[in-house]
UniProtKB/TrEMBL annotation:
Keywords: Metal-binding, Nucleus, Repeat, Transcription, Transcription regulation, Zinc, Zinc-finger. GO terms for molecular function: histone H3K4 methyltransferase activity; transcription coactivator activity; zinc ion binding. Residues 18-32 have a biased composition (Polar residues). Transmembrane segments: none annotated. It comes from the Eukaryota. Its main location: nucleus. Pfam families: PHD (PF00628), zf-HC5HC2H (PF13771). Residues 100-203, 256-308 form the PHD-type domain. It is found in: Nucleus. This is PHD-type domain-containing protein. GO terms for biological process: positive regulation of transcription by RNA polymerase II. InterPro entries: EPHD (IPR034732), Znf_FYVE_PHD (IPR011011), Znf_PHD (IPR001965), Znf_PHD-finger (IPR019787), Znf_RING/FYVE/PHD (IPR013083). GO terms for cellular component: MLL3/4 complex.
């Protein structure tokens, strides 16, 4: 049998205990924000288990500091005189997003006051810089970030339909707003030099930006909808020029070949970099748990991108030692069930009647 399987676990495919403790914060408004990693690693809610750690998350995209979606570092911005005075919500803040595009932003604006601490709010660098109304001073300080947060909690993202959107399409009269990760996932055009975003409806306007809209490989505009935006250097690449896809999960937080770093330890040892076949993000073989001795010859997926096509379980919900089959599309439990039950009558195998195995799908 030639099933593909892997026992790898990426220790930075999710916020780790170490990173959570490095950015631990006091719970806001009495409603602690629980790290998804703490929930995954706890195993079960027993009486002896300790209280999950609270971690800071962006007040716009709701992702943690070490996000994989290209927002850069989490920064603290002081509040102006227009700090929200709403009464605290009876509902707790949602758990910080786990870099899944479906968990970006907020579903309810009632948590506005809980997004601010005594002196201000926490926002990712790029989420703040790109936000509508934010000004940059001569000494490169950012102003009115808190105002962008207040406005963002009232705006739905055009892509994910959740609140917290603060980046508007540059075309006059266009009312589309996005979260920073969603702007890339939607296929919008982004100019890092001019901090200009053009939604998919107005992406043709990118040609007016000249060389900034050129692909770094073929030096031409080509098909604008196929351009990938590097969150590291700001250059654009046609997906076809790199022979990769252009799915939303690949676009969000994408790094070009020159900027790509390990999502666990950052720069270094590029020769031992594994690149996920689904999201195109890199991981060192020695940063995985357990570590790998060499680069695999078959396509490889990180834990975040493993989803069982039978039961729907995601890789992050299973221990790192769990085996995967069918190009990481079948979890170990479903594979065992498939090999012991007839696909026609759904009856289990017995000693008197053997099961025939398909040579293609097993």
């Amino acid at each position: 049998m030639d099933e593909q399987k892997s026992n790898c676990e990426e220790n930075d495919s999710e916020p780790t205990d170490d990173s959570a403790s490095a950015h631990q914060s006091i719970s806001l408004q009495g409603s602690p924000r629980v790290s998804p990693a703490a929930a995954d690693k706890s195993g079960s809610n027993t009486a002896s288990s300790s209280t999950p750690e609270c971690i800071r998350a962006c007040a716009l995209c709701n992702c943690v500091d070490r996000s994989l979606l290209g927002q850069r570092e989490l920064r603290h911005f002081r509040s102006s005189s227009e700090r929200p005075t709403n009464k605290p919500s009876a509902f707790p803040l949602p758990q910080p997003g786990n870099d899944d595009l479906s968990s970006i932003g907020f579903s309810d604006s009632s948590c506005l006051t809980a997004l601010f601490d005594d002196s201000g709010c926490w926002v990712h660098h790029w989420c703040a810089v790109w936000s509508d109304g934010v000004k940059q001073t001569e000494d490169e300080e950012l102003e009115d970030v808190d105002k962008a947060v207040i406005s963002g909690t009232q705006r739905l993202c055009e892509y994910c339909k959740r609140l917290g959107a603060s980046i508007q399409c540059h075309v006059e009269g266009c009312s589309r707003f996005y979260h920073f990760p969603c702007s890339a996932a939607s296929g919008s055009f982004q100019s890092m030099k001019q901090l200009v975003l053009l939604c998919p409806e107005h992406i043709d306007k990118a040609e007016e930006l000249g060389e900034e809209a050129w692909c770094a490989v073929c030096d031409s505009v080509g098909e604008l909808t196929e351009l990938l935006f590097c969150t590291g250097c700001g250059l654009h690449y046609h997906a076809s020029c790199l022979e990769i896809g252009a799915t939303p999960i690949q676009r969000a937080g994408w790094q070009c070949p020159e900027c790509k770093v390990c999502q666990t330890c950052q720069p270094g040892e590029d020769s031992k970099m594994l690149v996920c076949d689904a999201c195109d993000k890199g991981y060192h073989t020695f940063c995985l748990q357990p570590a790998m001795d060499s680069l695999p010859s078959d396509p490889w997926k990180c834990r975040r991108c493993r989803v069982c096509m039978e039961c729907g379980v995601r890789g992050l919900m299973l221990p790192g030692s769990a085996q995967w089959f069918e190009n990481y599309n079948m979890c170990e439990e479903c594979q065992q069930h498939r090999s012991s039950v007839c696909c026609v009558c759904s009856k289990a195998a017995n000693p008197s009647v053997g099961l025939q195995c398909c040579g293609i799908c097993r």
